[in-house]
Write a sequence for this structure.
């Protein structure tokens, strides 16, 4: 069956379809960051769980800092800074975390000294997609090897003891989450309980940033978006309505 609509009736129907198709609300994307997080259990020692230091979120607090972490035998850092922001106009989000004067003692008996002047993670989400990167300034990995200051995504070095892999260190770890967001961990140390026994289990993450996906720039069904949408609709509807009224007047005159 064919349905034909003319004049104002057609305009009203199109307007109803436009409003109905637009989402009632479209929350912009989210972003978060933190400087360090630990959850490790060393052999013969109690578990060490340290919540994210200097956590920031696009919903607030958007900026945070921490004087430094000092966990004997595990990790010591200088100042930590983190920030996360949202651009309401574009819907894009950005997050960044930086940790200064890092010293990791967790693996020192196997790898020797691990330190860095600055460990930084960054994540950006726009309407074009998501991107992330890490920067490692003054990195010293001792016996573990070498890694570039701007390592490729998911660069990994294995830590072995007596031929057994007991840990792995991932640089510029990039994780695509199920909700479409991206997490960038500048350094992620994973302790593995080997067949012959390792030094413990757990994770240490240094400088982490998560973002995206980007939200819609302006929700069309509320606020400014609604008035912009109705204004544009009015520009289209006015000539159509005027044409329909003029045609009716011509028919009446005839």
């Amino acid at each position: 069956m064919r349905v034909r609509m003319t004049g104002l009736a057609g305009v009203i129907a199109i307007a109803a379809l436009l409003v109905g198709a637009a989402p009632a609300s479209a929350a912009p994307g989210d972003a978060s960051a933190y400087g360090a997080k630990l959850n490790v259990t060393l052999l013969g020692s109690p578990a060490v769980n340290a919540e994210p230091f200097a956590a920031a979120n696009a919903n607030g607090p958007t900026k945070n800092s921490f004087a430094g972490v000092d966990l004997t035998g595990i990790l010591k850092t200088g100042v930590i800074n983190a920030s996360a922001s949202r651009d309401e106009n574009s819907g894009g989000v950005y997050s960044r975390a930086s940790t200064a004067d890092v010293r990791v003692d967790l693996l020192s008996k196997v790898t020797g000294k691990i330190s860095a002047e600055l460990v930084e993670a960054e994540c950006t989400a726009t309407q074009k997609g998501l991107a992330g990167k890490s920067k490692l300034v003054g990195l010293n990995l001792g016996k573990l090897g070498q890694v570039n200051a701007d390592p490729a995504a998911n660069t990994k070095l294995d830590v072995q003891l007596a031929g057994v892999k007991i840990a792995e260190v991932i640089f510029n770890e990039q994780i695509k989450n199920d909700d479409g967001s991206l997490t960038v961990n500048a350094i992620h140390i994973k302790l593995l309980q080997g067949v012959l026994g390792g030094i413990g289990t757990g994770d240490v993450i240094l400088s982490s940033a998560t973002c995206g996906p980007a939200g819609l720039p302006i929700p069309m069904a509320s606020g400014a978006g609604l008035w912009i949408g109705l204004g544009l609709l009015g520009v289209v509807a006015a000539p159509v309505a005027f044409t329909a009224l003029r045609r009716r007047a011509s028919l009446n005159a005839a």
Remarks:
- The chain has a mean pLDDT of 80.
- The two ends are 32 Å apart (CA to CA).
- The first strand starts at residue 31 and ends at 42.
